[in-house]
Design a protein that fits this description.
With 268 residues, the chain is of the alpha+beta class. The protein has a single domain, classed as Glutaredoxin (3-Layer(aba) Sandwich), CATH 3.40.30.10. It contains nine helices and six strands, in the order ααβββαβαααααββα. The protein has a six-stranded mixed β-sheet with strand order 1-2-4-3-5-6. Helix 1 crosses helix 4, helix 4 runs antiparallel to helix 5 and helix 4 packs across helix 8.
Length: 268
């Protein structure tokens, strides 16, 4: 029992530290947006167009010949057989919609994806109760933009959710230059059925740029300053921001979804 209590305390302390760090990051982001405003968004988009065809910096250590990228089997199994359309995963007629705003470089987004997402997909998305939408906001740096473009391009083949899940599993240090063409291809080759070279070529097209612009605008218009941030509500209805702590654990995320489902059932 003592060991169990200690682990619980350690997890609680870790969550508290993540929340504290995210609050500080959010404060800095608000300051940056106040200083940069619309110009900051424009710069991100221009940078994205310029670097789409290139790479930069040093990539993560290369995998050994024949070695699968970490998480490949788990990711493909998690989403196997679930309907996808662009940035959406799940039954289009699911009663509840959850929209996630995230940066692929964000360590808090990685923590949510690696610790919380899989049980939510299995328990709510696969069962037709929830459809999930991914809105990629790329504001941490140029590695974020490169990652966002490739994920959006994978979405054109209805493989976005596998791509982002596998990306988070192999996420590197922020702004270290690890998101090279080589790294993007490695992640892409781990996604079953993805035409990697087509996705690489599609990164700079107008459809991809518009998707990222729209995500950025939607993020700011909802008053969000940190990631990951979420909207939740009835499909086809008004979506509202999820509580700041509702995504920190499977239990809290499930509780938020269950509440939305109960509210929706009560209206029927």
């Amino acid at each position: 029992m003592a060991d169990t209590d200690t682990r619980k305390e350690q997890r609680a302390a870790a969550r508290a530290e993540r929340a504290r760090a995210e609050a500080e990051r959010a404060r800095m982001r608000r300051r940056l947006w106040q200083l940069g405003g619309v110009l900051a968004i424009a710069v991100v988009v221009v940078v994205g167009i310029v670097i789409a065809a290139g790479g930069g910096g040093n990539s993560k250590p290369k995998l050994k010949a024949g070695e699968s990228i970490p998480g490949q089997s788990e990711t493909n199994a998690l989403f196997a057989g679930i309907q996808q359309s662009g940035i959406t995963v799940g039954d289009p007629k699911a009663p509840i919609t959850v929209v996630e705003f995230a940066d692929l470089q964000c360590p808090f987004c990685q923590a949510y994806t690696t610790e919380v997402l899989a049980p939510i997909v299995a328990g709510y998305v696969r069962t037709g109760k929830v459809k999930m939408v991914f809105r990629n906001v790329a504001f941490i740096g140029t590695d974020s933009v490169r990652a966002a473009q490739m994920a959006a391009a994978a979405g054109l083949q209805n493989k976005l959710w596998q791509y982002i899940d596998l990306f988070y599993t192999n996420q590197g240090e922020e702004n270290s230059g690890y998101v090279t063409d080589d790294f993007l291809r490695k992640v892409g080759h781990g996604v079953k059925g993805l035409d990697v070279e087509k996705a690489m070529n599609d990164r700079g097209i107008a459809t991809v740029q518009k998707q990222l612009n729209d995500a950025q605008s939607e993020w700011t218009s909802n008053g969000f300053t940190g990631t990951p941030s979420f909207l939740i509500g009835p499909t086809g209805g008004t979506l509202k921001p999820m509580g700041a702590n509702d995504h920190l654990s499977v239990k809290s995320m499930s509780a938020a979804i269950d509440k939305a489902l109960q509210q929706q059932q009560g209206k029927q």
